[in-house]
Amino acid sequence: MSDLITLTDRGLYCEAGDFFVDAWKPVHRSFVTHGHGDHAHIGMGEYWCSAASKDILNWRLGVQNIHTLDYGEQRRFGDVLVSLHPAGHILGSAQIRVEREGEVWVFTGDFKREPDPTCAPFEVVPCDVFICEATFAFPVYSWPAIEQEISRVLQWRELCESEGKAAILYAYSLGKAQRILAELNGKLDRPVLLHGAMERGVDVYRRANIALAPTELVMSLPGDTSFAGRLVLAPPSAQDSAWTRRFRSFEQAQASGWMQLRGNRRRRNLQRGFVISDHADWNALIETIRESGAHRVIATHGNTDALIPYLERELGVQAERLRTAYGDDEELTANAENVA
Ligand SMILES: [Zn+2]
């Protein structure tokens, strides 16, 4: 049988069901796995996504023509049955399962296996062909427990307070920031301060009834406010910008999987790096591929130089890559936030 999902110049396409997945150019119908800028684009005739993604696509794209499926709900398109399953990446993130005559393909979109109070946990979906991301597909990437990184954030804030400094933490405004706020809930005496670009996304998560630490907008505070010891969340694009001047004395840190490599922190002129990622690390990636039971694995984005030979040698699966337009949402979309 022909491949159920193929790569086109507009995105991944399922001809048997006549729909795209995470199309990056306008098409008549696209499923969107989640709201990050490299997966959700404007200009689709019809959007299909998980129920929890709808508010996010509204916010990010300003579109209304959105159809939703609950996780696990099956819908027929042409010759295929389609369902969405939690990817554990951010609120509303979904894997898409496509079935034709008993053959099952799964596309993960971005995913992670670690606990995250802001979204439904990743579900292993058995399949024949597994299309997955490979953002951090090197053995060097091995995430510490989130609790450990959150206590490091709290210690850093205390240190900043003792030195009369603000503690500015850069984190992507969809997913990462909210996960950090959820983990900090109940652990701070004062509200976390937010850069203006963080406000909408935090509101979207609160509307979805996700408990987050109390927040306050930096811009709502009087000019003579002391920022000593205040934890501030801002998008990576705000680093070293004019916006930081109001804090006078401050330290800067970033929360990202890339912070696992010390050189990245040094190069980016950050005092601290916290290893908090929305993606699977190497072990989680391999384990998830194993658990899927797939005999064929297609990696869509990231560097697959280590992954593909490993899968062929150690798991005995057929492995290949597709060159999609998906990139690293932990960094890539920072430019879009410069304007906010
Ligand atoms: Zn993403």
Describe the structure.
The chain has 340 residues and is α/β, with parallel strands linked by helices. It contains eight helices and 19 strands. Strand 2 and strand 3 form a beta hairpin. It is globular and about 70 Å long. The termini are far apart. The structure holds zinc ion (ZN). It comes from Diaphorobacter aerolatus. GO terms for molecular function: exonuclease activity; ligase activity; RNA endonuclease activity.
Give the ordered list of helices and strands.
EEEEEHEEEEEEHEHEHEEEHEHEHEH
Structural class of the secondary elements?
alpha/beta
Round the Cα radius of gyration to an integer and report it. Answer: 20 Å
CATH class value of the largest domain = Alpha Beta
CATH superfamily of the largest domain: Ribonuclease Z/Hydroxyacylglutathione hydrolase-like
| Binned strand content | 25-35%
Describe the oligomeric state of these chains in a short phrase.
single chain
Domain module tally: 2
Helix share, percent: 10-25%
Poorly predicted regions are 331-340
Estimate the global geometry from the Cα principal axes.
Answer: globular
- Count of DSSP-assigned helices: 8
CATH topology tier name of the largest domain = Metallo-beta-lactamase, Chain A
Strands of the biggest beta sheet: in what spatial order? 7-8-9-10-11-18-19
Annotated CATH architecture of the largest domain:
4-Layer Sandwich
| Major beta sheet summary | 7 strands, mixed
Mean pLDDT, all residues: 93
Please report the total strand number as a whole number.
Answer: 19
Give the N-terminus to C-terminus distance in angstroms. Answer: 48 Å
Ligands and ions found: zinc ion
